[in-house]
TrEMBL record:
GO molecular function: alpha-1,6-mannosyltransferase activity
InterPro entries on file: Glyco_trans_34, Nucleotide-diphossugar_trans
UniProt xrefs under PANTHER family: ALPHA-1,6-MANNOSYLTRANSFERASE MNN11-RELATED
Name of the featured protein: Alpha-1,2-galactosyltransferase
């Protein structure tokens, strides 16, 4: 029996039918990518022109100058007598009241320094002052063991007026004496200086320095109090940390103005050269001790007596 062969299939396949979803030729892949990019670019331009107008752009806060100066002093209430500390506080408040300044006198125990030396509380307090007085023009840190001896002279007249500061600035000078290869900038202007400090024969004097308030000051203090520096075993804690920072961070060195030590840090009577003399602005008692014959409280009587002699009741107010 023979079966008929099935019909042969056509070897020519039918042509493809166009798909209903096929894009027009101008939207095919190469051109489609270009069109998408152009569309995104147009949307971005429209957003830049109209969408960002409602957002507040960042601007550095410019202090209004109210108050013009904050005098910051940190008291060690654990080791010194309350009578002595009261005389220090009165000295700051008396001076501040004469010139419309603010005296910020705080306790070291208000700040947690962890396992670091307690002297780091002074740097934490500076950050506190910058936060509490954002409109102050200057924050003047003055160590506990120091007296302002000329109550009539303003900080601006003594050092911070731009022309006065520029006349005092020691330029192109080793930051850490005697032979540091890192030197103060020679082109810095008085109006641009933000850290005003002096040096003695061993290094920077952190007993008395001035910060110009602003974003740079906040950056500087945050850098100074970095936990890495606080935990490092510097011989003189925050003082040596500062000397390290200014020598290795040009952003900080670029704002540092070095002034003669007697500008606002004349040392006690036993220091030659930069020793306190009658008429000096400020005297830190750097060699005094907590107790004994050379205690800060005993040495302070000499300076308190001078204030009383010169200012009468005003000086007595700083003595009570």
């Amino acid at each position: 029996m023979h079966f008929a062969y099935p019909p042969r299939k056509n070897s020519n396949p039918p042509p493809f039918r166009p798909r209903a979803t096929q894009l027009p030729s101008f939207l095919r892949r190469p051109r489609r990518r270009t069109l998408v990019l152009l569309l995104l670019g147009a949307i971005g331009c429209l957003w830049l022109l109209f969408g960002s107008r409602g957002e507040t752009q960042y601007r550095e806060h410019v202090p209004s100058g109210n108050p013009p100066v904050v005098i910051l002093t940190v008291l060690d209430n654990r080791q010194y007598s309350s009578a002595y500390l009261k005389s220090i506080q009165n000295n700051r408040e008396q001076y501040a009241a004469r010139h419309g300044y603010e005296a910020m006198v705080v306790k070291a125990t208000d700040y947690n320094t962890g396992k670091s030396p307690r002297s780091w509380a002074k740097i934490i307090a500076m950050r506190h002052a910058l936060s509490q007085y954002p409109d102050a023009t200057f924050i003047w840190f003055l160590d506990q063991n120091a007296y302002i001896m000329d109550l009539d002279r303003t900080l601006e007249a003594q050092v911070m007026a731009p022309a006065k500061l520029e006349s005092l600035m020691i330029k192109d000078w080793p930051v850490v004496p005697p032979d540091s290869i890192i030197k103060t900038f020679s082109h810095l202007k008085g109006a641009d200086a933000a850290l005003i400090i002096s040096q003695d024969d061993t290094g920077l004097v952190t007993n008395s320095y001035v910060l110009r308030n602003g974003d740079w000051a906040k950056f500087f203090v945050e850098t100074w109090m970095d936990p890495l520096y606080q935990s490092y075993n510097f011989q003189k804690a925050e003082r040596h940390a500062l000397e390290h920072i200014v020598q290795w961070h040009p952003t900080i060195l670029s704002k540092l103005a070095l002034v003669p030590q007697r500008t606002f840090a004349s040392y006690g009577r036993n220091k030659e050269g930069n020793a306190y003399r009658d008429g000096d602005f400020v005297t830190p008692m750097v060699d005094c001790t907590i107790s004994g014959a050379m205690s800060c409280e005993k040495l302070s009587h000499y300076y308190q007596q001078q204030l009383t002699t010169k200012y009468g009741d005003a000086g007595a107010a700083a003595r009570r």
